[in-house]
Amino acid sequence: xxxxxxxxxxxxxxxxxxxxxxxxxxxxxxxxxxxxxxxxxxxxxxxxxxxxxxxxxxxxxxxxxxxxxxxxxxxxxxxxxxxxxxxxxxxxxxxxxxxxxxxxxxxxxxxxxxxxxxxxxxxxxxxxxxxxxxxxxxxxxxxxxxxxxxxxxxxxxxxxxxxxxxxxxxxxxxxxxxxxxxxxxxxxxxxxxxxxxxxxxxxxxxxxxxxxxxxxxxxxxxxxxxxxxxxxxxxxxxxxxxxxxxxxxxxxxxxxxxxxxxxxxxxxxxxxxxxxxxxxxxxxxxxxxxxxxxxxxxxxxxxxx
Length: 305
Ligand SMILES: Nc1ncnc2c1ncn2[C@@H]1O[C@H](COP(=O)(O)OP(=O)(O)OP(=O)(O)O)[C@@H](O)[C@H]1O
Hints:
Blueprint: E1 2-13, E2 16-27, E3 31-36, H1 42-49, E4 57-62, E5 65-66, E6 78-81, H2 93-103, H3 108-121, H4 136-148, E7 154-158, H5 166-179, E8 184-189, H6 192-198, E9 201-206, E10 209-215, H7 216-223, E11 226-231, H8 235-242, E12 253-257, E13 260-265, H9 270-281, E14 288-291, H10 296-303
Parallel strand pairs: 3-8, 3-9, 6-7, 7-8
Antiparallel strand pairs: 1-2, 1-4, 4-5, 9-10, 11-13, 11-14, 12-13
């Protein structure tokens, strides 16, 4: 089932067209990375999905429920973590979750149980400190707990890791991975390694539309070139191998660094067999033979030119 469907979405601010016919479908039980350059329109899209911003055209449905500007019905199945979550600094995490639970009408026993469970999940259980003394990472973790209080089917996070150090980022990514069983997670980010670490789906917003969308393996597959890294026993072997006539075909590049050769070629698949045949003919046994995956960074750079 699709948990979020965006059809032909348009939004402009004055003469600046930010979204120009955006289509995006997010299946349930995925971790979906929503990527785009600064100003691409990620926050704008999320605000429209939450009914906080009026689109100029198009339709959005969350859990099959059509989103209307200013309406809140469709938000019943959504949890939202803004990029800079705001809290009452004088409260403790337990007090804060209690307040949020009361506002949303949860029964008090449920608030206590759910609060304990969530603070445990985000590593803040037993923290008696007031939120005013929390680090940025702790605030993001508390923000996730709050967003999950009502057991949403969809959790939307706006750049949850951008301002955090590597440990803080890992903590957030681990939490998002842990909740995917019950909750579909959409998160916007600039940090492509975070997407590679936990997302199974990714979409790249560029020029008001999606420039790429799919599972990580589909996207990698459609951009795959033959790339190989061969480590020889010594630089001399690498040099001898690099001089094979068959590696000099047009479009093939061979770069050497000590005993390591990196060979790239536009011919999908075939080049690998050629390399293995050449190694066998020359009776050379490499220390490593690796097929190179294109990085998301190189794929995205190519998609937005
Ligand atoms: N209320 C507004 N009024 C005018 N322009 C706006 C408004 N909100 C956003 N914009 C503009 O729309 C564009 C998209 O902004 P948005 O915040 O959606 O981008 P983003 O992809 O989330 O960027 P970032 O990664 O930097 O947060 C930007 O050029 C921004 O300046």
